[in-house]
């Protein structure tokens, strides 16, 4: 067999052929894994709703509310105990997606992080830091009269919550997500009361 001549045209043809072949393989693998990935996300959401509501509840209705910034949406999973609200803000490393459970009075029952890109060992501590018994616990509290804020910011109009050590940006983003979830829940529960 004769060796291919090393020319620009031959190099471009070979490189194009390899790129098309690799693109096809990646598309096939993406197709194979898309269903298991979506099933895993659905299971994580279902488990998250049960965890934040501290009960085996299923959503009775779901509301999708666009955020004022036009980029994000809030998803409210209403149930017999209250609602679980999914809220997304920008953290230190990227989007911070939080699911917060509220009782009918607006008190926080629990929360879970659905997605984050925070620094491992620092910002990633948000999954435990604000839980019951954690240093910055928000469980059982409500951001009603005064929204939550990082205590070191010393703003008088906010409820002071201890920030994660060496991770103030993540703490601010997390508390903002919780405050936004609360506002969204109160809007939807007010709308439900008037129906």
Could you explain how this protein is built, in words?
This protein is an alpha+beta fold. It contains 3 helices and 7 strands, in the order αβββββαββα. It has a 5-stranded antiparallel β-sheet.
Provide the residue-averaged pLDDT. Answer: 88
N- and C-termini, Cα separation: 80 Å
Tell me the series of helices and strands, N- to C-terminal.
Answer: HEEEEEHEEH
Shape, principal axes of CA atoms: elongated
Question: What's the main sheet like?
Answer: 5 strands, antiparallel
What count of helical segments does DSSP give?
Answer: 3
Counted beta strands: 7
Strand content: 15-25%
Low-confidence stretches: none
Structural class: alpha+beta
Brief rundown of the structure:
The protein has 3 helices and 7 strands, in the order H-E-E-E-E-E-H-E-E-H.
């Amino acid at each position: 067999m004769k060796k291919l001549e090393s020319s620009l045209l031959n190099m471009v043809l070979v490189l194009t052929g390899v790129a098309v072949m690799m693109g096809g393989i990646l598309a096939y693998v993406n197709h194979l894994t898309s269903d298991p990935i979506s099933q895993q996300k659905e299971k994580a959401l279902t488990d998250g709703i049960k965890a934040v509501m501290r009960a085996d509840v299923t959503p009775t209705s779901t509301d999708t509310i666009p955020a004022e910034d036009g980029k994000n949406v809030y998803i409210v999973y209403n149930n017999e105990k209250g609602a679980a609200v999914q809220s997304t803000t920008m953290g230190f490393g990227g989007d911070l997606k939080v699911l917060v459970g509220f009782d009918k009075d607006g008190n926080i029952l629990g929360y879970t992080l659905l997605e984050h890109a925070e620094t491992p060992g620092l910002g990633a501590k948000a999954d435990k830091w604000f839980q019951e018994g954690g240093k910055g616990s928000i469980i059982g509290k409500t951001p009603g009269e005064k929204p939550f804020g990082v205590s070191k910011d010393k703003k008088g109009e906010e409820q002071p919550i201890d920030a994660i050590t060496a991770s103030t940006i993540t703490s601010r983003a997390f508390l903002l997500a919780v405050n936004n979830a609360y506002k969204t829940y109160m809007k939807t529960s007010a709308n439900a009361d008037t129906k």
